[in-house]
Amino acid sequence: ARIERLWSRWRGPLGLVQKRHVQEIGIEVPVTPNVRWVRDEAIRLFSRDAEFGIKTQIERGDGSEFDALREFTAGMDRRAIDWKHSARHRHLLAKEFKTERNHNIVFAFDTGRLMSEPLGGVPKIDRAVTAGLLLAYVSLRSGDRTMFYGFASKPGVTSGFLTGTSSFPKAQATVAEMDYSDEEANFTLALTNLAGRLERRSLVIIFSDFVDTISAELMLENVKRLTDRHLVLFATFEDEALSTMADAAPENPEDVARAVIADTLLSERDLVFRRLQRMGVQIIESRPEHFGAELVSRYLQIKQRDML
Predict the structure, then answer these.
(1) What is the mean pLDDT of residues 46-66?
(2) What is the DSSP letter of 81?
(3) How many helices (H) and strands (E) does the chain have?
(4) Are 76 and 217 in a shared domain?
(5) Mean pLDDT of 95-116
(6) 114, 206 in Cβ contact below 8 A?
(7) What pairing do the DSSP bridges indicate for beta strands 104-110 and 18-28?
């Protein structure tokens, strides 16, 4: 945000005289996202009482990287038993694994016209950024590297790769520089530019939206190229307005027409999702209140299945 001038006003000691002063300052002030929710949610997700079935203790017990041997106890997977060391020590020992670290996690935010539209009174991009910051905090804490990348009609700001939770303020500052745009997203330019920045296989999370198969065609074409080397996760919000129109009981011919159009658009949306899935793209389509939690849950599943 830009502050052009500063007004100040004060009164004399007796309250009889009042003076006003206007000072031209012309300074740029960064508007950063409110990260209190991000920190609170991250703490909740890493606690033992995590909701939504999200497994948060990811550093030990999952993955494929050997960590240590421990005594086998009831309920453990028998396939984890190390028979060689068990025979040597004369009691059952099991291998304990940990999730691999140092993966690249890329957050690609479409800041174009569709993502600048409001959803429940808040622009979609703002909701996406909040969820992205939550996952960034979790992934940084888990030992992975994160990068933020914004684009609309052309590539925008990028953070470069960040490591460790101490770099979280840099992520916050980067997304603060992302601005709303009334232009369509140029996926050809944006994703080609992004691919050129990635030297090794990465999880690329694309926060975007589309209206129909025609508007999604260029997005599909360029996402396909990205999947040749990287694992792509397409994250978008459920279109509740279309679902409501399609399911509403019609009372007049106009309602029927709206319901038919809404149902057609929802069918085209499903068609795009099916095409993405055939490419090997992971998909999250969620309501805003569950978006961040589902994003973290999918990230943990990807790590546990060793898909990177």
Answers:
(1) 47
(2) B
(3) 10, 13
(4) no
(5) 85
(6) no
(7) unpaired
The yes-or-no verdict on residue 59 having pLDDT over 70 is no
* Residue 298 covered by a domain: yes
Is the backbone of residue 288 left (phi > 0), alpha (psi -120 to 50) or beta?
alpha
Question: Do 172 and 294 sit in the same domain of this protein?
Answer: yes
Residue given tokens 């994160």 in the structure block: 146
pLDDT tens digits for 157-200? 999 999 998 999 999 999 988 989 999 999 999 999 999 999 99
- CA dist 220 and 188 (Å) reads 10
Examine the domain organization and report whether 88 and 118 are in the same domain: no
The DSSP secondary-structure symbol of 209 reads: -
Of 90, 96, 126, 98, give the one whose Cα is nearest residue 111.
Answer: 126
Q: Please name the helix (run of DSSP H) or strand (run of DSSP E) that holds residue 282, with its range, or none.
A: strand 282-286
Give the pLDDT confidence score for residue 156 in this predicted structure. Answer: 93
- The more confidently predicted of residues 239 and 29 is 239
Read off the pLDDT of residues 233-248 as tens digits, 9 standing for 90 and up: 999 999 877 777 777 7
Give yes or no for a contact between 307 and 62, defined as CB atoms under 8 angstroms apart.
no
Backbone angles phi, psi at 42, to 5 degrees: -65, -40
Distance CA 57, CA 300 (A): 10
